[in-house]
Amino acid sequence: MDKLIITAAICGAEVTKEHNPNVPYTVEEIGREAESAYKAGASIIHLHVREDDGTPTQDKARFKACIDEILKRCPDVIIQPSTGGAVGMTDEERLQPTELGPEMATLDCGTCNFGGDEIFVNTENTIKNFGRLMIERGVKPEIEVFDKGMIDYAIKYAKQGFIKEPMHFDFVLGVQMAATVRDLSFMVDSIPAGSTWTVSGVGRHEMPLAAVGIAMGGHVRVGFEDNVYIEKGVLAKSNGELVEKVVRIAKELGREIATPDEAREILGLKK
């Protein structure tokens, strides 16, 4: 079984300081939260960025400032910018951070209902274009999956040459698809041989699915983007506190934690 890769999704685009005052907005705060997660054992920082007032943005200059701050504090960490951005952003806006040459970036393989009237749109042409540009820019996509059909799209577009294999998937459960062991197992059984995967449980599902993912030999994502509580009714003090909890679970289950360079080897990245 590979060592465990822990991804920290440190702020997302929707969660705010009203949900948890420790959610980072500024460049310094984002650097602080990335460092807390890295020191606790995260080898990947999944990165959204904000304006100082918390407004989500995909501005390339803002991403560069945040990436520079993170790398100053955590020189060997893998930074994985989001190309999801926020609901309503154009494809051109969303793709800006890939121009900075990151090792990884997210690639959402379908449209998703986020709740109420919020629809996160990814057309067939959007997915193909994002995949093609990531190949051109040498960026490994993390395939973001919110239901089984998105796996099928990823396999289809990989066969057409828009996504390189072997693929790495992130199963985000608790939004559009139920956060159950049955559904996670179904997703894992549906991806091509040789693929790697991470599980992200949203809200109260974060830690139970992390434990299941660790036991199944997959990898784990935690962080304020998905959940702001360390336990029921208790706000997490930092992203690092959430990562520390995953590390404790992993040690109890006999999984070693991957360093950033070990994660690169597992994922086939070249720094």
From TrEMBL:
Cofactor(s) annotated in UniProt: Zn(2+)
Presence of keyword Zinc: yes
InterPro entries with a match to the protein in the record: BKACE
Keywords, comma-separated and alphabetical: Metal-binding, Transferase, Zinc
PANTHER family per the UniProt record, alphabetical: 3-KETO-5-AMINOHEXANOATE CLEAVAGE ENZYME, 3-KETO-5-AMINOHEXANOATE CLEAVAGE ENZYME-RELATED
Protein name (Swiss-Prot/TrEMBL): 3-keto-5-aminohexanoate cleavage protein
Source organism of the structure: Tissierella simiarum
